Amino acid sequence: MATLHIHKVQHTTGVCGGNACIRNTRIPVWTLVSLRSQGATDKIRLGGLKKVGNGNC
Q1: Which of 43, 45, 47, 53 is the most exposed place for a label (fewest CB within 10 A)?
Q2: How far apart are alpha carbons 27 and 17 in whole angstroms?
Q3: Is 42 helix (H, G, I), strand (E, B) or coil?
Q4: What is the pLDDT of residues 9-55, one digit of tens each?
């Protein structure tokens, strides 16, 4: 039986300076980590990011 592994973080040369991004977006992971460290809730961090809220993270 094959197991499907879905990668939610991508590293793509030439996209966001090669920083890790949320799959199929140009949203760097470090941005979400930074917002969280500043006390932002998930609702605030992902509120304007509809693509991220659709199972990408």
Answers
A1: 43
A2: 11
A3: helix
A4: 888 888 888 899 988 888 899 988 888 898 888 777 667 666 555 55
Phi, psi of 37 (to 5 degrees): -65, -20
CA distance 15 to 1: 35
Given a contact cutoff of 8 angstroms between Cβ atoms, the answer to whether 18 and 50 are in contact is no
* Residue type for position 6: I
Sorted by where each starts, the structural domains of the chain and their CATH numbers stand as 7-40 (1.10.10.10)
Contacts made by residues 21-26, CB under 8 angstroms, sequence distance 24+? 22/51, 22/52, 22/56, 22/57, 23/56, 24/51, 24/56, 25/49, 25/51, 25/52, 25/56
